[in-house]
Amino acid sequence: MSNKSQNKFSQILSVCKARGFLFPSSEIYGGLNSCWDYGPLGVQLKNNLKKQWWENMTKRSDVTGLDASIFMHPKVWEASGHLDGFTDPLSDCRDCKHRFRLEEGMTTCPNCGSKNITESRDFNLMFKSFMGPLEAESSTVYLRPETAQGIYVNFLNVQQSMRLKIPFGMAQIGKAFRNEITPSHSIFRTREFEQMEMQFFTSKKESARWFDYWREERMQHLLSLGFKETELHFKVHEKEELAHYAQKAEDIEFDFPWGRRELEGLHNRGDFDLSQHQKFSGKKLQYFCPVENKSYLPYVIETSIGVDRLFLAILSSAYKEENVNNETRKLFKLSSHIAPVQIAVLPLSKKSALLEIAESLSSDLQKEWFVEYDSSGSIGKRYRRQDEIGTPFCATIDFESCEDNKLTIRYRDSMKQERISIESLNNFLKDNFK
Ligand code: GAP
Q1: Which atom of ligand 1 is nearest to the CA of 251?
Q2: C-alpha 306 – ligand 1 centre gap (Å)
Q3: How many CB atoms lie within 10 A of CB 50?
Q4: What pLDDT is stored for residue 345 in this prediction?
């Protein structure tokens, strides 16, 4: 990573920590490698991203929701191929004892540069545990490494209970766990993360068309969150890069501060998963098509994105530093519909007449918006704080407000200020929020 990119990334992480987006997990105990806690603003931003995705996926007649359990029958992971195939090549450095993921073409230890490294061996990325009081082989369970399998095993439950006809999709948001050998870049690659996945069931004949459809749909959704077209890119997987379940795969990559990396994966999984579950469970999972009057195993088009990775990408995309009066102004230019605070109410002084108006305005606005009320410190410092947490608008109540019932709206991006009547603020927000 260049110094400039490293600097940008460190700045983003330090604002995240200072302003209550992200904290290292169990920090008072020295933290736990690769685990992170979302603070008050972080969880709000994360929830906003999940809400946008959920509504985009399920506010249509051909996609339903699901929330499957994290623990699943251990046979699921045999059938899905994760027990045998979900591995990374692990190598050890005989000199510095560093353990690392052996990337293709790597001949030296990434920690000390020694060539004295072991042959790689396969390391399964699934976390293992035991269900119930007996720590026996027969009670072994796994933390799911992807949410997708919960959808496949419920394919017929959902199709029949909801009387759905193919094509249709099932969307799910939930935690997934991978014992990554080398977690990296804070929440970019962690061992516990959240996925938003949608599996779209279609006939084989129509699967290529639906792949193209979802590819475009997903790109449009990401753009609607505020990403710029120039920082998102499609990348086709070559045959030898394909995951064990995929017939075709394409990523949407994002230009993170340290380089271009996968943000979302799109896969044509064929009928791999349903046919494996049919085989391992002994239960028929075929769909009966009333039009063609025949049964078949549908093909699956999958879209899969990590919430945490999206969170980091959107903050990286929105982070800006500007020089204002010889001082650095840091800001997150977040779109108003995902910003964790949508409007800040700031009384200019602590005079009771001003506080009264500001408090009453703030509690009115809270019925509809995410509001922060802040009455302490200089107004300049308060504006800077709101810039740093991405608040698109501040509403300042000053002495004149008591006379003319107006307030000052201050725009985050342009820093422009304008006076509007207090009673028109709600409509102003409605007009200005996409
Ligand atoms: N069901 C398909 C699947 O899981 P994947 O490409 O392994 O495919 C999909 O993962 C998405 O999940 C990735 O694009 C990424 O956004 C997120 N993801 C995967 N592993 C992750 C990790 N260790 N930490 C954070 N996010 C991760």
Answers
A1: 14
A2: 6
A3: 16
A4: 98
For residue 275, the CA-to-ligand 1 centroid distance in Å is 23
Q: Is the CB of 253 under 6 A from ligand 1?
A: no
Find out whether the beta carbon of 88 lies less than 6 Å from any atom of ligand 1: no
Token pair of 4 as six digits: 């400039």
Kindly report, residue by residue over 399-413, the tens digit of the pLDDT. Answer: 999 999 999 999 999
Ligand 1 lined by 19 (C-beta under 6 Å): no
**Tens-digit pLDDT profile for residues 187-226:** 999 999 999 999 999 999 999 999 999 999 999 999 999 9
- Residue 318 Cα to ligand 1 midpoint, Å, equals 22
Dump pLDDT digits (tens) for 28-41.
Answer: 999 999 999 999 99
Per the DSSP assignment, residues forming a β-bridge with 254 are: 232, 261
For residue 272, with 0-12 CB atoms within 10 Å meaning exposed, 13-18 middle and 19 or more buried, which class applies? buried
What the block records as the tokens of 370 is: 């995410």
How much is the pTM?
Answer: 0.96
Structure tokens at 96: 């510095």
Which residues contact residue 150 at a Cβ distance below 8 angstroms, ignoring those fewer than 6 apart? 66, 68, 69, 72, 144, 172, 174
Percent helix / strand / coil, the chain, rounded to 5 = 35, 30, 35
